[in-house]
Amino acid sequence: MDKLKAYDTPFYLYDLDLLNASLSACKTQADRFGYHVHYAMKANTNDMVLREIVKAGFGADCVSGNEVKKAFQSGFDPKAIVFAGVGKSDKEITDALEIGIGRFNVESVQELEVLNELAAKYNAIAEVNIRINPNVKSYTHANITTGLNENKFGVSAEDIQEIIQLTENLKHIKLGGLHFHIGSQITRMEAFKNLCLRVNEINENCKQYGWKPDVLNLGGGLGIDYVNPKDNPHADFQLYFETINGLLEADQDQEIHFELGRSLVGQCGQLITKVLYEKLGKTKDFLIVDAGMTELMRPALYQAQHFIENLSSEAAEQNYDVVGPICESTDCFGKEMPLPKSKRGDLLAIYSAGAYGESMANAYNLRAQNPSAYIINGKVVRP
């Protein structure tokens, strides 16, 4: 606590001990079934966090050209880098070809044709997975649902036969596998069960069309506990992988891949912020803190809830709206939050901020971002 007071707020605090425990738990369960896990870079690209993920032996799932470059520069094996995204630019594609990444997850027929043209210029063969929209409900927030017919991602399962035939004439494309992703922050195993059943059906259809996918990539989406992060510091990787293994009907020579992000890094990060003012209103009380939606966008964007703890006070609790300094009414971290009686200068920790926190931070209102701090072997450091 005393060490945290020495740092300018707001800042991200990453518990690398907790991160490594989460990475180990995931890898242990995935290895039971021979599964391959790629880390979803969009969740967090902090250098120290990436260093630990590389050391743990994961691949990388990227959704932009700069993420591909960052993954390569951070030490991920290029052949374990997968490049997804519905709108890859020509430059992003050519940069990825130069790096020699393992796979492109392709999301439209026209993208296949463009990728073939660009690969021809490099005399390269681009290995691809076709992203299929399985039309499976994910039981999560509408803004992070990605696998329904009305979503912009992937191609229809009804178009697979046409795509197989098309790739026969694309000399610089190697058709590899199938890719699926139905959403994010999914906590109901029913969604993954339904995905497996749909993947089984599509996989069999491909075989009937004369093509056997070498990879079945089921994406990610496994959620974490935002309400009780102290009680559940890790996602339930055992239940997740056992659910998949119990229902997915893959041949022995078909590799099973995943793209996990939030479940690996979400719980290891806290946003540390300072109380600027306690504002007593007519019908409610506010804590105005120095962090805002510029540091943590999720509550404003998804109405997400994060557990908040006052690190400085043990007084009796009362309810506060915890709000930031940004000139937007949506700049609110939580309403009617039960917190100890708080005062100016108290430090608050906003938990479960390791995913889609720092990676979505922005400079709106010309906000500056302070350096992150880390917990390593139980000690707080700021390199």
UniProtKB/TrEMBL annotation:
Where does the record place the Orn/DAP/Arg decarboxylase 2 C-terminal domain?
11-354
Name the UniProt key words of this record, in alphabetical order. Amino-acid biosynthesis, Decarboxylase, Lyase, Lysine biosynthesis, Pyridoxal phosphate
Q: Pathway it acts in?
A: Amino-acid biosynthesis; L-lysine biosynthesis via DAP pathway; L-lysine from DL-2,6-diaminopimelate: step 1/1
The protein's GO terms of the molecular function aspect are: diaminopimelate decarboxylase activity; pyridoxal phosphate binding
Its needed co-factors are: pyridoxal 5'-phosphate
- Record-annotated active site: C327
Q: Might you give the EC number(s) for this enzyme?
A: 4.1.1.20
Gene Ontology biological process terms in this record: lysine biosynthetic process via diaminopimelate
Q: Which residues carry this modification: N6-(pyridoxal phosphate)lysine?
A: K42
Write out the residues that bind pyridoxal 5'-phosphate.
Answer: G221, E259, L260, G261, R262, Y356
Q: Which Gene3D superfamilies match?
A: Alanine racemase (3.20.20.10), Lyase, Ornithine Decarboxylase, Chain A, domain 1 (2.40.37.10)
Q: Which residues bind substrate?
A: R262, R298, Y302, E328, Y356
Q: Which reaction does it catalyse?
A: meso-2,6-diaminopimelate + H(+) = L-lysine + CO2
Q: Where would I find the Orn/DAP/Arg decarboxylase 2 N-terminal domain in this sequence?
A: 26-265
Q: How does it assemble?
A: Homodimer.
Return the similarity comment. Answer: Belongs to the Orn/Lys/Arg decarboxylase class-II family. LysA subfamily.
Q: Which PANTHER family match?
A: DIAMINOPIMELATE DECARBOXYLASE, GROUP IV DECARBOXYLASE
* Summary of the function given for this chain in its UniProt record: Specifically catalyzes the decarboxylation of meso-diaminopimelate (meso-DAP) to L-lysine.
Q: Per its record, how is this protein called by name?
A: Diaminopimelate decarboxylase
Name its species. Answer: Luteibaculum oceani
